[in-house]
Amino acid sequence: MISIEYKTQTEILQDIGARAKSARLRENMSRKTLADKAGVAEASLKRFETTGHISLSSLVQVLTALDRLSELDELLAEQAPLSIRELDATKRQRGRK
Q1: In angstroms, how far is the first alpha carbon of the chain from the final one?
Q2: pLDDT at residue 74, as a whole number
Q3: What's the pLDDT at 43?
């Protein structure tokens, strides 16, 4: 498997959509069933599974319906500082220009 750093944005999105489709199939759900359970349009779910394009709110709904929402929590989770210098840097509240 190619590391994500070497993939294009399109390839990354397609991989995520394919993973969502695999998760749906493992749960033995049709696209219509998942769309109904998630409260999203079936066409949106189809577009997501084939292209990876979906709104963030729809993604949350799909992950909730697949009982995989906890995985989203890890996406931008705070990482523990590795040094005192990094710990001091986390006190800054504004980004640099």
Answers
A1: 37
A2: 84
A3: 98
